[in-house]
Amino acid sequence: MRFELISNLENFKGVELIFIDEDGFDKSTDKDELVKVGFKAKEESGVYLSHLNKLYVGVKFDDSEDLRIAAAKAYEIIKIAPCEELAVEILPEFIEAVVEGFELSSYSLTKYKSKNEPVSLKTIYIVSSDEKALKKIEKAKTIACVTNYAKDIVNSIPNDYTPAKMAEDAKGLTKISNITCKVYDKEFMEKEGMGALLAVSKASIHEPYLIHLNYKPKNPIKKVVYIGKGLTYDSGGLSLKPSDYMVTMKADKSGAVAAMAIIKGAAKLNLAVEIDVILGATENMIGGDAYKPDDVLKSMSGTTIEVRNTDAEGRLVLADCLTFAQKIEADYYIDLATLTGACVVGVGEYTTGVMGHNDELKNSIESAAKKSGELTNSLHFNRHLKKLLKSLIADISNISSSRYGGAITAGLFLDKFIEDKNKQKWIHLDIAGPAFVEKTWGYNGAGASGAGVRMNLYWLQELENKEA
Ligand code: BES
Ligand code: ZN
Ligand code: ZN
């Protein structure tokens, strides 16, 4: 989508978009027209008055999220009309939200259809005299575009999007200045003793890769490491998923992909924060040499793991990635993973589960998430749940002995691989719900949503502002 800044509507010939609340509705010069067509200035309602070249969309002006959703509503209506240019006057504090709402809602997965409906809309004119408007538009566009970049990868099908493809895309990011990338193969992981990640990858015909990206700005004020679960497919392994649960498991790479989008966004925004990204890219498949329930794995950290369910594979991959990641000295370690169905059951499909030991850090991420429009719930660790991971024969079991609290016990499993000196620096984000939803919600189309991308880019910007 193209966005242009103009200071007034004088010479504009296209369709004018008017965001209107109940107050504005009462005062509107078009009130009679609007009443005639039954328009009420309620949220998620809109009407296109083609004879007046006007598009009215109802909104509450409470927060940015209202405007993102209103922009999505406007896009939904206008995309089927033969309208090439849309203009909208916006208060300075809502410019970013409106641009994000348009850009995010304009994403669609087209590559697997033989025919796609063309959309006429080419340019959106933002009418504002805010001196920072241009900067705000650019920033919002970048954030929304990298979120859409994540969606497109997550939506890609597992036969095309293999661990090798992820490695290739990661290398592609080095076209952006200040980003470098190293890709490690199976032999390297064997040498490093990454027995947990390697076990998961065993039955796949696609080789696993460990991917390390780095973004280094001139004078970084902080350093953050992101660790991503990159299961390009999760069949469950020998603890095979039922068919209905296997569908959508191409999205099990969402954590890794979000981390790629975050580093891409940070570099494009020129953030003064150094970022490392560690991705474990592999498939979880079945076969004669598949890893098995009853196996005992030796992780890179030396901790031994009893496998009781091969479908709890994400935590195995992350265990070795977390150990590898902590070789890098940093201020924060944040992992992103579609880790548990239990998290989706617990907090609903739109919400990310936030776990960690540092309440202040958790709060700062949750507050940034809220501003970005992403939903979070904090899930608290406790000593009783921790005991449920005990194994009779190894240092830890890969599943809990209870059927309850599965999102938290998965988080506690990861905690076992966090070094004491890093406990306060670590956050685990379970994005199993929002990463992929098979229906439209707000400005998110059906399929991948890029969960975790916007909340972290907002958080990184706040980190930068706090230090400056
Ligand atoms: N990738 C799944 C988690 C998942 C479920 C993501 C639904 C998105 C939507 C993960 O690898 C998994 O299968 N976890 C198991 C863990 C269980 C065996 C302890 C689960 O949640 O059922
Ligand atoms: Zn699984
Ligand atoms: Zn998985």
What descriptive keywords fit this protein?
468 residues, alpha/beta, Aminopeptidase, 2 domains, 8-stranded mixed β-sheet, 19 strands, binds ligand BES, binds zinc ion
Question: How would you summarize the topology of this molecule?
Answer:
Elements: E1 2-6, E2 15-20, H1 22-27, H2 31-36, E3 46-49, E4 54-58, H3 64-78, E5 85-89, H4 95-105, E6 123-127, H5 133-154, H6 163-172, E7 179-184, H7 186-192, H8 195-201, E8 209-215, E9 222-234, H9 243-246, H10 254-268, E10 273-284, E11 296-298, E12 304-306, H11 314-325, E13 332-337, H12 341-347, E14 351-356, H13 359-372, E15 375-378, H14 383-387, E16 396-397, H15 406-415, E17 426-430, E18 436-437, E19 447-448, H16 453-467
Parallel strand pairs: 1-6, 2-4, 2-5, 5-6, 9-10, 9-13, 12-16, 13-17, 14-15
Antiparallel strand pairs: 3-4, 7-8, 8-10, 11-12, 14-17, 18-19
Helix pairs in contact: 3-4, 4-5, 5-10, 8-11, 10-16, 11-15, 13-16
The structure holds ligand BES and zinc ion (2 copies).
